[in-house]
Amino acid sequence: MTREKFINEVTTLTKFIQTFCDDKHGDLSRQESEILLDFKGENGVTSAKFCLCDECKITLFYALARLSECPHEIKPRCRKCPNPCYEKEMYKKMAKIMVHSGVKLGLSKLKKSLLGYLKR
Ligand SMILES: [Zn+2]
User: Fold this and answer.
1) For residue 11, how far is its CA from the centre of ligand 1 (angstroms)?
2) What range does the domain containing 26 cover?
3) How does DSSP assign 4-60, residue by residue?
4) 38 vs 36: CA distance, rounded Å
5) What distance in Å separates the CA atoms of residue 87 and residue 76, rounded to the nearest whole number?
6) How many domains does the chain have?
7) Could you read off the pLDDT of 6-63 as tens digits, one per residue?
8) What is the pLDDT averaged over residues 94-118?
9) How far, in Å, is the centroid of ligand 1 from the Cα of 90?
10) The pLDDT value given to residue 28
């Protein structure tokens, strides 16, 4: 995995989990935080900013740890990975988050481009 790809993946992952937590856990106590991430021995390559409940924070940290240890030079989609590194329970949890946020972010992008189109 390249440095750029890693930074990209971190951004996407954080955004997806944040969207999910905003929708599902907005009423739980949440704290804003920011963490610095290392990549291949380089310190502070990128950072992740989030405001998550405890459960989602654990999921995010888990996913980030797996990501930085991904052995594939060209990272496959986790769903198609020949040797998935997620434990089953975490995988299920992430799949739920990805579906929820994927639909939501996909739709809002569509809506935005539709609005842009209508304004012309
Ligand atoms: Zn949450």
Assistant:
1) 17
2) 3-119
3) HHHHHHHHHHHHHHHHHHHHHSTTS--EEEEEEEEETTEEEEEEEEEEE-HHHHHHH
4) 7
5) 17
6) 1
7) 999 999 999 999 999 999 999 999 999 999 999 988 999 999 999 999 999 999 999 9
8) 82
9) 14
10) 95
